[in-house]
Design brief:
Elements: H1 3-26, H2 43-50, E1 56-62, H3 71-89, E2 95-100, H4 107-114, E3 120-121, E4 127-128, E5 130-136, E6 139-143, H5 154-165, E7 172-177, H6 199-207, E8 209-212, E9 226-230, H7 238-249, E10 254-257, H8 263-275, H9 291-297, E11 299-300, E12 305-308, E13 313-316, E14 319-328, E15 344-348, E16 354-355, E17 362-368, E18 374-377, H10 386-392, E19 401-411, H11 425-429, E20 443-451, E21 463-468, E22 471-476, H12 480-492, H13 511-552, H14 559-624
Parallel strand pairs: 1-2, 7-8, 7-9, 9-10, 10-20
Antiparallel strand pairs: 1-5, 3-4, 5-6, 11-16, 12-18, 13-14, 14-15, 17-19, 19-20, 21-22
Length: about 625
């Protein structure tokens, strides 16, 4: 074969390779081998996309042309872009994607700002955009700026944005609670910023129109789609209880949280007592119950008994609290969709619920204790040391249910119909007004989520609020807020959003390297510390000698001082060399692994390609003879 012919063949092979690369990259086929399928749309998102009726337009604003972008920002922005493209590719044309680079002083930048997107200043001084605007007809929703601290929530945020863009009106959620979930409309101190609602309410408000219901009310607002009752006060009127009863019998769901010992209400009571000069009056809402409806449903719950479990006890350093329980995968029912992505949930001084034998309903346990759990009086929790509390827990040899979904045919707690409204003197003076009497229901199919704790919903025990580039963001301490949002979306009907939160993060720690570092530290740390101590002593001696020379008033040091200083500096150099050797040993195995990985990723492919080429060339020559 002539040399020119070989050159032409090589060029043709190269062109074919480039064409093959272009064709393969153009095929909309992706293989996601990550543990949590971080780069793939879940089945829930695809189902949600298939229900889109009118086209949705996504305008993705990304300052791609900005100079000196941090590598981490670029990587995260590219991942956001690729994820959004998956939504468009999976929509059969129902999602239209526009990728826009809002350069400074351009109409694109003005449009981004007008849509509510926030440009963020990076440490280099440049301002960048990384936001999304979703539009369907006249309805517009946006994500002002994607936060890489919430990378694991990326798919959930995108799916929720698209879902909410299609809502003409949000479902109505009635909130009845004695817990301070809603912030007062005025700051606690003059000049202070207004207080914020608890994060759980902010989450619910993104999907629902939340309407607060006063404890003294006698009826529910009209057209509620779902009802949340959290730490219900004992002063609820029979008229309001009847409204709740009929709400359930109409097939409308309820989110119900009771508590034998609310730490939040206890703390609020203590603050009130301090403000009232130490008046010692226990909070009337530190314990909560729902006895009238529990009795009708066949639910057994003791508001004076809290659960303790040595196997699930919250432990940190030398602190262990057996009535603070951390529920992990083994104690969470993953078949219940809202709990499918909950890995750790913290409940404080929770109670337990149980279905009576004569109940016609079904109770699906969602969170259960171990068989070593027992109950203790909620009255002693504030006065008993943790060790003594552990000794007082008597194992019942059965798992206790602290949260569950109650479903089936509910029966009314008011068989005699609607109770009479409370008499008031001012009402007696008024002329009677005829009211439309609603049909009284005796039974009905419905669902009620019950959990025997309320503190898990409060920010203090679930999240840490942060300030990121001037924006308020949060760091989850556990999966409490995920569970609260999932359950409410599940009950409220937006079930396609369930299971999308917390898919993990792209920044994964190298566990093998971490384990190697731990072993190396254990092997060499003592020796390194000894050298560090000796080096510190030598440096102190050198400073001492130098100080003696300065204090002597001599321009030239005495031979004794010079000799001592020389000796100490030689010892210092020797110890520094020994320290370098120890640190080199610490990294030896890790560096060895690094070069092995470099060889596998960089060196092995071309070697394999050359070997294949030689094998192919030789086989061709053998066939030619």
């Amino acid at each position: 074969m002539s040399r020119s012919k070989r050159t032409h063949i090589a060029i043709i092979i190269l062109v074919n390779f480039l064409l093959l690369h272009y064709i393969v990259s153009s095929i909309p086929l992706r293989i996601d081998v990550t543990e949590e399928n971080m780069f793939s749309l879940s089945k829930n998102s695809k189902t949600m996309i298939s229900k889109i009726e009118e086209p949705v337009t996504l305008d993705f604003y990304y300052s791609k042309s900005a100079k000196d972008l941090p590598i981490r920002f670029k990587n995260f922005a590219n991942r956001v872009e690729q994820m959004i493209k998956q939504y468009a590719n999976s929509s059969a044309g129902k999602i239209r994607l526009n990728i826009i680079d809002p350069q400074p002083d351009t109409p694109e930048e003005e449009n981004a700002i007008a849509a509510g997107l926030h440009g963020q200043s990076l440490p280099s001084g440049i301002t960048v955009f990384l936001g999304l605007v979703a539009t369907q007809a006249d309805n517009e929703k946006s994500i002002a700026f994607f936060d890489w601290n919430k990378e694991g929530f990326l798919e959930y945020d995108l799916s929720r944005l698209i879902f909410e863009t299609q809502l003409l009106a949000k479902p109505r959620l009635g909130l009845l609670t004695s817990l301070p979930l809603k912030a007062p409309p005025y700051p606690a101190m003059p000049g202070q910023p207004p207080p914020q609602d608890q994060y759980v309410v902010q989450q619910w408000e993104s999907s629902f129109e939340v309407e607060t219901i006063e404890a003294a009310a006698t009826e529910l607002p009209n057209s509620l789609d779902i009802l949340a009752i959290i730490n219900p006060p004992a002063t609820l009127t029979d008229s309001l209880l009847y409204e709740i009863d009929q709400h359930i019998l109409k097939g409308k769901p309820v989110f119900l949280a009771v508590d034998p010992s609310s730490r939040t209400m206890k703390a609020q009571s203590q603050q009130s007592q301090m403000a009232m000069m130490g008046m010692n009056q226990p909070s009337p809402d530190a314990t909560s119950d729902f006895p009238k409806l529990f009795e009708a449903w066949g639910i057994s719950y003791d508001s004076m008994q809290a659960v303790g479990d040595p196997n699930l006890a919250y432990a940190q350093a030398n602190f262990i609290q057996p009535s603070w329980l951390v529920f992990r995968e083994a104690n969470i029912n993953k078949s219940f969709m809202p709990a499918s992505d909950v890995d750790a949930s913290l409940l404080l001084e929770t109670g337990s619920i149980k279905l009576e034998d004569n109940s016609s309903l079904e109770l699906l346990p969602v969170m259960t204790t171990s068989a070593d759990a027992g109950q203790v009086s909620s009255m002693i929790l504030d006065f008993t040391q943790q060790g003594a509390l552990l000794r007082q827990i008597e194992a019942g040899n059965e798992e206790l249910t602290v949260a569950g979904l109650l479903s089936g045919e509910f029966k009314t707690a008011f068989p005699n119909g609607k109770p009479a409204a409370p008499n008031r003197e001012e009402d007696a003076e008024e002329s009677p007004v005829e009211e439309d009497v609603a049909e009284h229901l005796e039974s009905g199919e419905s669902s009620v989520f019950i959990i025997a704790d309320t503190d898990w919903l409060v920010d203090q025990f679930s999240i840490r609020r942060l300030n990121f580039l001037g924006m308020n963001t949060y760091q989850p301490l556990n999966d409490n807020q995920t569970l609260a949002s999932n359950v409410m979306n599940y009950l409220g009907g937006s079930r396609d959003l369930i299971g999308l939160q917390g898919k993990g993060t792209q920044d994964r720690s190298f566990e093998v390297v971490q384990q190697m570092e731990v072993k190396a530290q254990q092997a060499y740390q003592a020796k390194l510390q000894e050298v560090e101590d000796q080096l510190s002593t030598i440096q102190q001696e050198i400073q001492k000698i130098a100080g003696q020379q300065e204090g002597s008033g001599l321009i030239v040091a005495t031979p004794e001082l010079s000799e001592a200083l020389k000796k100490h500096r030689e010892e210092e150099a020797k110890l520094r060399g020994e320290r370098r050797n120890i640190r080199r040993e610490l990294r030896k195995d890790i560096n060895s692994l690094k070069w092995k990985l470099i060889f596998v990723n960089v060196g092995l492919p071309p070697i394999a390609l050359v070997a294949f080429g030689l094998f192919f060339f030789r086989s061709r020559r053998l066939r030619s003879f």
